Amino acid sequence: MRFITDNQTLEDLKIVGQGDHSVISIFNRTVTRGGAALLDELFRYPLSDANAINHRSSIIQYFASIKAVFPFSGELFDVLEQYLSNTDERTRLSPDEHTLGKKLTHLIAEDTDYKNIYKGVTAVIDILHGLRSFIDSIGPAGGPTRSTHSPAADPAGSTHAQDEQFPYYTEKNAIAELLSDPVLELLVKERSNSKIPYNKVAAYDTLLRFRHRDTIKKIVRPVYYLDVYLSVAKVALQRSFVFPRALPKEQHTLVLEGVYHPQLKNAVPNTLYMGPDSNVIFLTGANMAGKSTFMKSLGIALFLAHMGFPVPAGKMTFSVFDGIYTTINLPDNLGMGASHFYAEVLRVKKLAKELSLSKDLFIIFDELFRGTNVKDAYEATIAITGAFAQRRNSMFVISTHIMEAGEILRQQFGNISFQYLPTHMNGNDPVYTYTLEAGITDDRHGMVIVRNEGIIDILKNGKKKIS
Amino acid sequence: MSFIADKQTLDDLNLPGKYKPDSIYNLFNRVHTTGGEKLLDALFQHPLTDPDEINRRSELFRYFQQKALAFPLVGESLNVMENYLGGGGGENFVMAITGTARRKLLDSVVRDEAYSRIKTGLLTTIEVLKLFFDFMGRLEEEDGLDGPFGKQIRRVKEIFNDRRLEGLRTEWEAGWSWLKVARYDHLLRNLLQTEMATLTGIIYQLDVFMAVGHVAALKGYTYAHALPAAFNTIRATGLRHPRLEKAVGNPVSLHQDRNMLFLTGANMAGKSTLMKAFGISVYLAHMGFPVAAEEMTFSVKDGIYSSINVPDNLSLGHSHFYAEVLRVKKVAVEVSVAKDLVVIFDELFKGTNVKDAYDATLAVTEELSAYRNCFFIISTHIIEVGETLRERCNNIQFARLPTVMEGTTPRYLYKLQEGITADRHGMMIIENEGILGIIALNPA
User: Fold this and answer.
1) What is the sign, positive or negative, of the torsion defined by CA atoms of A211, A215, A217, A223?
2) Residue B271 needs a FRET pair 20 to 30 A away by CA distance; which of A153, B49, B132, B165 works?
């Protein structure tokens, strides 16, 4: 089943999108365009199967450990894609046409069509050569051609063992098998850097572009995957991200140590543990104490973890969820005439529906019910948080300013963990630690901020025309 | 000095913006020409602060609304004309003649298109000018030269009375030799370049005035009457949001002794809509545009600031609350330098906890209200602030948007009443949506 999320979540966490602030931009170091497109695809479809997640993660981890370098240039693949995309039969080279007359024309003016085809054919040869030597250079020596060890016959557990030694084993074999295709072998035998005669180019062209196009396309896809894996591995190394370990869904646990926001400088790491006995975190703290940032780092780590990608944290173990939903910057849809409170209610309703389908979700809600008066917010927060708490298979992180709701919830539920982000006062200036502590805080410094900005003084001392 | 409205305000009220489907600009964008569109955009960018100028402009809109005429020209021909007129320039007559001769020759020899393009441009332009002149003539016939549009009519007449243009009408039927093309091409594009620019300018004005008048008639808008700033008053009845069909009209009246409206009401009772309706009307009124109200009189202000949807700027590390504080600070600075402003704050300090919001709202509101030359509408869900303000200030009006309960279903009247609300229906909305029951479905 697919891992579910929605646009609100992707926007809250700035997962995708152009610009330097998105999460995808951290990982977007691919060499090829195809790699970039594939990375985008992976971000759009995170995984919800623990084995698949661990498998991908261990491949990236393996490449990080051997510091592998992508053996191709991006232009090579641009040439290839352009070459393959031209399926017009009329551009096909015919072996008979290579007459003396043609040769003469070539002497006078360069035939661009032929030149492009020639470039395409040599690109294929270069790619095949590069791929061959790349896969030969990785993994245990002699490994890939072990024909006695067919992956299909593996008992279920041994993939796991395999992953630990050489996780790219299956993929490497698949590439090796593709390369042993008789047509491709023919091309592999062609030496690169040597001039290929017209007749041969024409023959190859027919094979590559018309008869065996799909074979070529098949070989390109794993290369794009390699591109993504290697660029993610490089990022993991550079930024010291860790590889999370996925557990089966049924375990319902989350261990997340030293998690931080990847787009902040000097971000402060935080640690949290969640499980069926503490599946709700009730988060309080003053404005600017870092509630939203903490929730975003949490969401980003979970999202990346479900892609099998490395995360900005010290350590992470998690049971797989069916999906993640965050509500951090909820826009009110005033064009439709709905108030902010109603937007919040509709959002909660949407989450409620998803929960009622027995999905295991990770839900983050920042400032639950801030669009209404205190009394209503207090009652609604208790009612909704209490109802959420009973969905033990899902996990919730809820922040609020209404600390009084926390006291009531503490009496009613044993599985809510109360955490806060503290503020210390240094004279008139609030100082924030950005580090979670257990409990509920009644810190509030709103008036201090208003006063520090000098708003009241500005108004008191301003020029009143009439008063 | 031009009327002040910053980006936040324009976004809140959704005023300009061709590419925002719900913008007020698009409400009025019924123009036929691209030049008219540009002019309309410029009017939206620069509201006025001189009451006479405002009243003169609204007089023009009203005039064309009453005329209820159809725009006499086709937008496409105007584009051709503008392209054509913009293409020439700088040549003397001899060069123009030889140039045209050369193009004509190329046209017949190698089917070059330059000549026929110029000929089409010229003929379209002449056609437009004729239609336009006839139309202006008709206006003159009906209303003379002293009507609101008289100045423009006079100018058009002056230009057409140029002796060199006399031939246009008579020679029109006689067919077109290349020499004649060359002559008129030179005349329109070189000799009368400024005059032609003036004419197109008046055509675009006409387009905008007619479009706005048409929208006003269609939607039943009225024209606000502008007074000098010293009157210090804004009074409107039947005020509604121009974007909402079947909107409920409300009266709003602010003046020196009652310069603040403190607005309360349940969620969804229509607070934001009322505030937007007020803000939009004030802005449109300063443009001389028709407003969605039964009647409106206002003294001109220096600008308007609103704070309805303050975005948090997280890339700068600001929380929602801090964004609000900075917004209030900006407005406070503007108010404190003796500008006459209209200020709209919706749900002031909603990004913080209620106790802070209470303290901050009370302190800021009380200080603001002392600026009697400025007008404020402030809404909050913290009812308690209102109670305290009522004790301390005598220049604040308290208004509420009521909710009536029909069984468990709230119904909103959208009709202002005096006082502070006691309605709270938040939990009821949650119950009506059946959320708690949904969450509890299919327990694990």
Assistant:
1) negative
2) B49
Report the relative pairing of strands B260-265 and B290-291 from DSSP bridges.
unpaired
Which amino acid, B253? S
Distance CA B270, CA B261 (A): 15
Name the 3-class secondary structure at B337: coil
CB contact (8 A) between residue A391 and residue B439 = yes
**How many of the other CB atoms lie within 10 Å of CB of A21?**
12
How remote is the C-alpha of B377 from its chain's centroid?
A: 21
Residue range of the domain that includes B112: 75-217
Question: Does A370 contact B at CB distance below 8 Å?
Answer: yes
Provide the 10 A C-beta neighbour count for residue B58.
25
Q: Which of residues A329 and B361 earns the better pLDDT score?
A: B361
Domain membership of residue B296 (yes or no) is yes
Q: What is the count of residue pairs from A and B with beta carbons less than 8 Å apart? A: 200
Mean pLDDT, chain B, whole residue set: 87
Whether B338 is covered by a domain: the verdict is yes
**Overall number of domains in chain B:** 2
Q: What Cα–Cα distance (Å) separates residue B18 from each residue in B15, B29, B281? A: 10, 8, 19
Model confidence over A381-439: pLDDT tens digits?
A: 999 999 999 999 999 999 987 888 999 999 999 999 999 999 888 877 788 999 999 99
Q: Which of B13, B318, B354 to mutate to test the interface with A (most CBs of A within 10 A)?
A: B354
Convert the pLDDT of each residue in A49-92 to its tens digit: 999 999 999 999 999 999 999 999 999 999 999 998 888 887 78
Q: How far is CA B179 from the centre of its chain?
A: 47
Say whether B352 and A444 touch across the interface (CB within 8 A).
yes
pTM for this one? Answer: 0.68
Same domain, B85 and B156: yes
- In the listed set B217, B237, B264, which residue is the last one of a domain according to the structure? B217
